[in-house]
Amino acid sequence: MKGQQQLKKSKVVKIDSRKSWEHHITNATNKGYPVMVHFSAYWCMPSITMNPFFEELASTYQSVLFLNVDVDEVKLPSWKSKPFLPFC
């Protein structure tokens, strides 16, 4: 299939639960990996606009764990308040 564009796999991990958050943070901590988190929301256009840039960073800095957390989907009780979305 010549000329067919190959799909790129995302290097950003979507966090969909507290358990997923704890797993990835614990794993990164144990291995000594730095972590970069993009807190986003479906209703925040500037946050959504950041997604391609965040993907590009994840492809460039492969020794860093990049996580995406939708603040409306994932409720983490360790946060005393909802994470602030400075763009919105």
TrEMBL record:
Pfam families: Thioredoxin. Transmembrane segments: none annotated. Residues 14-75 form the Thioredoxin domain. This is Thioredoxin domain-containing protein. It comes from Glycine max (Soybean). The lineage of its organism: Eukaryota, Viridiplantae, Streptophyta, Embryophyta, Tracheophyta. The gene is LOC100500083.
